[in-house]
Design goal:
The chain is mainly beta and 224 residues long. It folds into two domains: 116 residues, Proliferating Cell Nuclear Antigen; 89 residues, DNA Polymerase III, Chain A, domain 2 (Roll), CATH 3.10.150.10. Helices cover 14% and strands 42% of the residues. It has three helices and 16 strands. The strands form four sheets. It has a five-stranded antiparallel sheet, covered by helices on one side. Strands 4-3-2-6 form a four-stranded antiparallel sheet. A hairpin with a 6-residue loop joins β3 and β4. The N and C termini lie far apart (42 Å). About 3% of the residues have low confidence. Keywords: DNA replication, DNA-binding, Nucleus. InterPro entries: DNA_clamp_sf (IPR046938), Pr_cel_nuc_antig (IPR000730), Pr_cel_nuc_antig_C (IPR022649), Pr_cel_nuc_antig_CS (IPR022659), Pr_cel_nuc_antig_N (IPR022648).
């Protein structure tokens, strides 16, 4: 028996909305430690590793380890039916080929449930080795997402360069070039709005802008 109750339902909605652009089908693994997913995009360029820890749920019951294959587009469609303030509960019985999503309004005056068929997905769990990074950048995720969105209207790739002066985003396309520089700023009133750079040595790497859609979820990224 699996039963997970997440008070911050909007968190799961945002996660799925971002992941569905990278991964189509994936196995969600449930264990005593949490609700997790590991998958690669179709071009095998990006690896997604997600873990929602058990202590982050208001109620977490997982009687035995369980793997549920889901289509992320279909899952995202169902989650869109939940309000941003709704409480989301995920339920599945042992041996069942379906999973149930229940959405409850904060005032309990509206309850909806959706049932989705599970899939048989062959996947290999990949080990993610520990790595030493030349630079670690922390910045508001909304700002990172906006920069990538703006640059995607100019070019297809972005060069991210980290120096002591700041982090620079550059792109080049048929219509011209664009450069955006964010300088370190850790003196803002709200820590989550700060841009903090930890650098051992300068780094300059190129990324496809279409793979930057997920950045709205996180505000820390590492370069080596």
């Amino acid at each position: 028996m699996l039963e997970l109750r997440l008070v911050q339902g909007s968190l799961l909605k945002k996660v799925m909305e971002a992941l569905k652009d990278l991964v189509t089908d994936a196995n969600f693994d449930c264990s005593a430690t949490g609700f997790s997913l590991q998958a690669m995009d179709s071009s095998h360029v990006a690896l997604v590793a997600l873990l929602l820890r058990s202590e982050g749920f208001e109620h977490y019951r997982c009687d035995r380890n369980l793997s549920m294959g889901m289509n992320l587009n279909n899952m995202s469609k169902m989650l869109k039916c939940a309000g941003n303030d709704d409480i989301i509960t995920i339920k599945a019985d042992d041996g069942s080929d379906t999973v149930t999503f229940m959405f409850e309004s904060p005032t309990q005056d509206k309850i909806a449930d959706f049932e989705m068929k599970l899939m048989d997905i062959d996947s290999e769990h990949l080990g993610i080795p520990e790595a030493e990074y030349h630079a670690i950048v922390r910045m508001p995720s909304s700002e990172f997402a906006r920069i990538c969105k703006d640059l995607s209207s100019i070019g297809d790739t972005v060069v991210i360069s980290v120096t002591k002066e700041g982090v620079k985003f550059s792109t080049r396309g048929d219509i011209g070039t664009a450069n955006i520089v964010c300088r370190q700023n850790s003196t803002v009133d709200k820590p989550e709005e700060a841009t903090v750079i930890e650098m051992n040595e300068p780094v300059s790497l190129t990324f496809a802008l279409r793979l930057q859609r997920w950045v709205m979820l996180g505000s820390t990224w590492l370069l080596r």
